[in-house]
Design goal:
CATH architecture of the largest domain: 2-Layer Sandwich
CATH superfamily of the largest domain: Band 7 domain
Structural class: alpha+beta
CATH topology of the largest domain: Tetrahydropterin Synthase, Chain A
Helix content: 55-70%
Largest sheet: 4 strands, antiparallel
Number of domains: 4
Oligomer: single chain
Number of strands: 11
Number of helices: 9
Order of helices and strands: HEEEEEEHEEHHHHEHHEEH
Radius of gyration: 52 Å
Distance between the termini: 167 Å
Length: 305
């Protein structure tokens, strides 16, 4: 009986050992995970999701979450309370400003993320804060608070990426955005609000002016085209009139050379017709015997011939 119990205990212990060996030989990797398998101190990354095998008690597995995570800079993410030591900065024109950022990152190299530094997240935050203060320090306060946010974010992101590449801590920057930017006092806040309102009014005025120009320009262009066409038509008419007059003068000169007296009389009557239209000419004089003569001479019969 005792031998039977001993055998059962031995079988049970063996089963437990086998189960432990089996379970310690298997590990799983999720879709948003990577693993680092260490064999006698030599790490190797495993990125394929699913079930994997390892050598029990020899190989050790550490899993790394590769989902995108965030770091709040300048405020507490849970309570949204400001952290002035992080947010308060000085600009290039020697103004103080509170700026909050939100940084997104992910693990790009699990081995470096585990072994290159003791706490890569802290290193990333320190790098980000240094880059943020460097960029804000070379930017005027007006750009920080109003119009230059996109450019500031782009410059900071580029600088952080360069620093991460130089330090190589296995962390990849996804994005960094300005959450809020405002002066440190209420009076300065109101002044900047007034500046922003004035800028918006300026933009509105410019847009209205551009709209008016767009509406009026076609009409003005059409008027210019009409004036040009009228001028060209008047020019053509005057040229044609001049050419016609020159041709008539040439024809008249040819007639004059043939019949000078008749041409002179004709020119005289045409001039009289032009200068004295619808008039009757009275002639006073004496005949050969010395008698006075008064007569009316209408020009129409002569001019109609």
């Amino acid at each position: 009986m005792n031998d039977m119990i001993k055998k059962l205990i031995g079988v049970g212990i063996g089963a437990v050992v086998i189960a432990i060996l089996i379970f310690s030989s298997i590990y799983t990797i999720g879709e948003q995970e990577q693993a680092v398998v260490t064999t006698f101190g030599n790490p190797k990354a495993v990125s394929t999701a699913g079930i994997h095998l390892k050598i029990p008690f020899i190989q050790h597995v550490r899993k790394v979450d590769t989902t995108i995570k965030g770091i709040a800079i300048g405020y507490q993410e849970a309570s949204n309370a400001s952290i002035e030591s992080e947010s308060l900065m000085i600009t290039s024109d020697f103004n103080f400003v509170n700026v909050d950022f939100y940084l997104e990152y992910r693990v790009s190299d699990p081995i470096l993320a585990l072994y290159a530094s003791q706490n890569p997240t802290v290193v990333l935050k320190n790098i980000a804060q240094g880059c943020i203060r460097s960029v804000i320090g070379t930017t005027d306060v007006d750009s920080v608070i109003t119009t230059g946010k996109n450019e500031i974010q782009a410059n900071i992101k580029e600088m952080i990426m360069r620093e991460l590449a130089a330090n190589d801590i296995g962390i990849q920057l996804v994005n960094i955005t300005i959450q809020d930017a405002e002066p440190p006092t209420d009076a300065v806040k109101e002044a900047f609000k007034a500046v922003e309102t004035a800028k918006q009014s300026k933009e509105t005025a410019i847009n209205n002016a551009n709209k008016y120009r767009s509406e009026q320009l076609p009409a003005a262009q059409a008027k210019v085209d009409r004036i040009i066409k009228e001028a060209e038509a008047s020019k053509a008419a005057r040229i044609n009139e001049g050419i016609g007059q020159a041709e008539r003068f040439s024809a008249l000169f040819d007639e004059y050379k043939k019949y000078p007296l008749i041409t002179k009389q004709r020119m005289f009557f045409e001039a009289m017709q032009e200068l004295l239209p619808d008039m009757t000419v009275y002639i006073n004089g004496t005949d050969k015997d010395g008698n006075n003569i008064e007569m009316m001479l209408p020009l129409e019969p002569f001019l109609s011939e």
